[in-house]
């Protein structure tokens, strides 16, 4: 893997560990010579992951919609800042540039980005590993929800297992490097239930 997209919050949240782990992710990617693709902002966890990667000598590419640039949150110290017209174009560009995805803690935007990447993978539009760094159990409730979706017959187990999970960045990267996309299709047949 040469490039990983990281989705995360534009705020720091209430627990200092989120910022510390975001910085560790950026530093680890740089040390492993993996370029960081992210949302292009200089604030919150987004800024922390980018700054740590840059400080460790890594390459960082930000993808930012023009309307957010005008809010003066664009990170001006990046290796490259790509400006796009819409949030959808941003996700498409970030997908095009990366070999895998990691979600750190975040809000609606982070979840929307994560689930769009999972949906694209489920539909066979890409075969990239998609992972969450489950810092301090942040995503425990989401993991439980995915298990419920599978138990209730609304999500295939093979698709549920597309989402890689760990609370340790080194373990998560190991899982991502060894990931094999499922070969089964998305659709659940009535007879399977």
> Ends: how far apart?
37 Å
Helix content: 40-55%
Name the strands of the widest sheet in spatial order.
4-3-2-1-5-6-7
Derived from helix and strand composition plus strand pairing, the structural class reads alpha/beta
EC number: 3.2.2.n1
Catalytic activity: AMP + H2O = D-ribose 5-phosphate + adenine
Keywords: Cytokinin biosynthesis, Hydrolase
Enzyme class: hydrolase
Give a written overview of the molecule.
The chain is α/β, with parallel strands linked by helices and 193 residues long. Helix 1 runs parallel beside helix 2. The mean pLDDT is 93. The protein has helices at 16-31, 44-55, 66-69, 87-97, 108-122, 140-151, 157-160, 169-177; strands spanning 3-7, 35-38, 60-65, 80-84, 101-103, 130-133, 163-166. A 7-stranded parallel sheet has the order 4-3-2-1-5-6-7, with helices on both faces. It is globular, with a radius of gyration of 16 Å. The chain is built from 8 helices and 7 strands; from the N terminus they run βαβαβαβαβαβααβα. It holds the Pfam family Lysine_decarbox. Keywords: Cytokinin biosynthesis, Hydrolase. InterPro entries: LOG (IPR005269), LOG_fam (IPR031100).
């Amino acid at each position: 893997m040469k490039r990983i997209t990281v989705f995360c919050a534009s705020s720091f949240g209430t627990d200092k560990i989120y910022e510390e782990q975001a910085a560790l992710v950026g530093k680890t990617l740089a040390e492993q010579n993996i370029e960081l693709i992210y949302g292009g902002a200089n604030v919150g966890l987004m800024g922390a992951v980018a700054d740590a990667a840059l400080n460790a000598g890594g390459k960082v590419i930000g993808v930012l919609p023009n309307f957010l640039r005008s809010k003066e949150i664009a990170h001006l110290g990046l290796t490259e800042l790509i400006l796009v017209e819409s949030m959808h174009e941003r996700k498409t560009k970030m997908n095009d540039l990366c070999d895998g995805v990691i979600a750190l803690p975040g809000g609606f935007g982070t979840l929307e980005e994560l689930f769009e990447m999972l949906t694209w993978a489920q539909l066979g539009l890409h075969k990239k590993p998609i992972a969450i760094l489950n810092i301090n159990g942040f995503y425990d409730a989401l993991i439980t929800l995915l298990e419920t979706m599978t138990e209730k017959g609304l999500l295939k187990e093979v698709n549920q297992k597309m989402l890689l999970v760990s609370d340790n960045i080194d373990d998560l990267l190991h899982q991502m490097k060894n990931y094999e996309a499922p070969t089964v299709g998305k659709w659940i047949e009535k007879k399977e239930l």
